[in-house]
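pasting for ref. prot 1 ->
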Amino acid sequence: MMNIKELEETLIFQDYITDLLHKFGWSLNCYSSRKYNIEKGESLARIEIKQDKRVKETGNLYFETHEKAVTGVFVESGILRKDNTMFIIIGDYDHLWMFSKKQIQYILVNGNFPKVETETSKAYLLPLEYLYKHKSIILAEWENGKEI
């Protein structure tokens, strides 16, 4: 379970993305309660936001598939959670990528990408090297808050 500092960092990043998308005419309208987040997804715009603080360090994007922070057992989350999400924005404050959820699911599940497991999370790693060889999978991309 996230501590208060981690939760605040996550919410600040979500607010950053909300402001960024607003500059491009998109209204995100994020759900803030766990109940709505689980039942409906992260936002009315059907966009899920994921901050990857280690992308520069690892050279990979971390796409979560399972978590057990709340229940104590692994449950589907991230790209595998069944909710209203159609798009995923992932990255850090310097670089962001937007993908179709269905497309990134297909690529990761059917590809030969590294899987990782921590005490509370399971995920696929998508190497940035692969991403730039297959740029067509990127729906939108931002660098330092500017669309590229």
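and prot 2 ->
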Amino acid sequence: MQLFLAESVLRAVAAAGVAAYPRECCGILLGRFHPDRAIATHAIIAPNIAELGEQHQRYILDPLVFLRAQRVAEAMGTDIVGFYHSHPDHPAQPSVFDAEHAWQGYFYVIVCITREGPQEVRAYGLCDDQSAVMREIPLVLVSEPDSAF
């Protein structure tokens, strides 16, 4: 499985991470699933509703934003393919908290943000064995999202 990410989505995710720094940003990725890949064509920014003192190391997505995103995806004829968040001053690797709160079947894009700006971006998904272990997923940037279909 691999995730194709529109360059416009990467720019939106990176900008959200820079704007939230030194707190974690978060949001939802819309696109399409295919048997061997998914493509993320749109990003929905969501507020991080984790307690203020925790936002530098954790995010919690507002459930109401998730419900609204489902409606938007249906109206657009797309799916929720995953989620994104930033790691301020930490590598773009899932934490134990990230893995324990991940949902099977979705992609998770993590962007490392420092004072200098975005540093790296990686994608992950839960292993198929139902454990709370995440594996890195190949991430392919595309300028023309329709070309990945």
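The domain at 21-144 is CATH 3.40.140.10 (Cytidine Deaminase; domain 2).
The mean pLDDT is 94.
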